[in-house]
Design brief:
Elements lengths: L1 H10 L6 H12 L7 H12 L6 H21 L5 H11 L2 H11 L9 H6 L2 H4 L24 H5 L25 H8 L5 E10 L1 H10 L8 E7 L2 E7 L8 H14 L2 E7 L6 E7 L2 E6 H7 L4 E6 L7 H4 L14 H11 L3 E5 L10 H9 L4 E3 L2 H12 L1
Parallel strand pairs: 3-4, 3-7, 7-8, 8-9
Antiparallel strand pairs: 1-2, 5-6
Helix pairs in contact: 2-3, 10-12, 10-17
């Protein structure tokens, strides 16, 4: 069964390995699952899943597999009574078996003498079959011999949602489109801290060391605040086919502005040509020639293009198309390569789903220009892009 479970995880693109599977088998042999499906779920996730981005995928695969087994058991008929009696006899006394049999057949339970019942407070025993008292049956009792009656719980309208069906980790899936929360986490890979500016932060370690050297006389030592030294230049595609991706681009811009002190941004349409621009107001736009961009921002800036790269191929390869200020004989490809020659650390983030890239010729052309440094705007894609920029 566990081999089939392992293969099912592989089919659902959960990156599990033989080594991790063997670790799970060792843990089961040591009794860590405690004969409980809930415990097995937690143990399997610990042993098999090494990245929280795959938790949701694991939960979905786990639910599919064990729901399929449950359905097969229900269709295969009842378990032979002799098997149940033998298994129950190893765990329960004859008196406990009698009580359980009466409960499952909706018969009144023959309890202790009435005098003993009167001595027991009503809340001490609780609901017998819910197990919230001290009896040995039900799910939530305080008895050390507490048992879970699966057949009754399955029919209980108040049963709780299983841990693997709650989808608590859906937002961490590395293939979903990003939200602001996940963007900030991914951008933090692109960090290079240094202390800059006025020394206005208390250096506690140096203060203690200096005070000790001065025989206990307090000597406060200040230092500049640690700040991210990474410099980022963002170029956003705007208009046309990018309209459906406006919200994602706004989230990316908001997260980047909060994460990087040295950041600037400009806009282009479809492909970079002779200029990029900024919106100075609702009806006023300032254009900046590419040469000015290269002269203004040094080679230490990380260049990030954000766009779907969806256009007519001629808009990239043919000269003189979409030049905004002056007629030119240069193509969009030439302008792009001039930027890449200056900014050696550059990536392209594409909000379109990666499975559609090969069906769009212009995307393939831009990928070639970027030397395959195009990444999907997902948690995994942004994480890979930040790693590429950090090299």
């Amino acid at each position: 069964m566990l081999i089939d479970f392992f293969l099912h995880l592989k089919e659902r693109r959960v990156p599990v390995t033989i080594t991790e599977f063997l670790a799970l088998l060792e843990a089961l042999e040591a009794g860590l699952a405690n004969c409980s499906l809930d415990d097995f779920y937690r143990l399997a996730r610990i042993c098999l899943v090494k990245n929280e981005a795959h938790y949701d995928r694991f939960d979905v695969a786990f639910s599919e597999y064990f729901e399929k087994i449950r359905a097969q058991d229900e269709n295969s008929g009842n378990i032979p009574e002799a098997w149940l009696e033998n298994a129950a006899g190893d765990m329960l006394s004859a008196q406990d078996l009698a009580v359980l049999d009466m409960a499952l057949n909706d018969k009144p339970v023959q309890s202790e003498p009435a005098a003993a019942e009167k001595e027991m407070a009503p809340e001490a025993d609780g609901d017998r079959m819910r197990g919230n008292g001290k009896n040995a049956f039900g799910m939530g009792g305080t008895s050390p011999e507490n048992m879970r009656l699966e057949s009754m719980i399955a029919n209980n309208s108040e049963k709780t949602v299983k841990a693997w069906d709650s989808r608590d980790f859906k937002g961490l899936d590395d293939e979903i489109e990003l939200g602001t929360r996940n963007i900030k986490v991914a951008l933090r890979r692109l960090r290079k801290f240094a202390r800059e500016g006025v020394p206005d932060e208390l250096d506690l370690d140096e203060t203690i060391r200096s005070t000790a050297k001065n025989a206990g006389w307090l000597d406060l030592v200040m230092r500049p605040e640690r700040q991210n030294k990474v410099k980022v230049l963002l170029l956003f595609d705007t208009g046309g086919s990018m309209v459906p991706h406006i919200k994602t681009c706004e989230e990316l811009f908001s997260a980047a502005r909060a994460e990087f002190k040295h950041m600037d941004h400009f806009y282009f349409h479809n492909c970079v040509y002779d200029t990029v621009w900024k919106y100075e107001g609702p009806s006023y736009t300032t254009h900046y020639p590419i040469s000015q961009l290269i002269n203004r921002f040094g080679k230490d800036y990380k260049l990030i293009f954000v766009g779907d790269a969806t256009m007519g191929p001629s808009e990239i390869t043919d000269p003189g198309i979409n030049c905004w200020l002056h007629p030119t004989t240069l193509s969009g490809e030439t302008w792009m390569k001039s930027l890449l020659a200056h900014f050696r650390h550059a990536v392209w983030l594409n909000p379109e789903q990666e499975r559609f890239w090969k069906t769009t010729q212009s995307i393939e052309i831009i990928r070639d220009i970027m030397e395959n440094r195009m990444y999907p705007l997902t948690l995994r894609g942004l994480d890979d892009a930040m790693r590429a920029l950090s090299k």
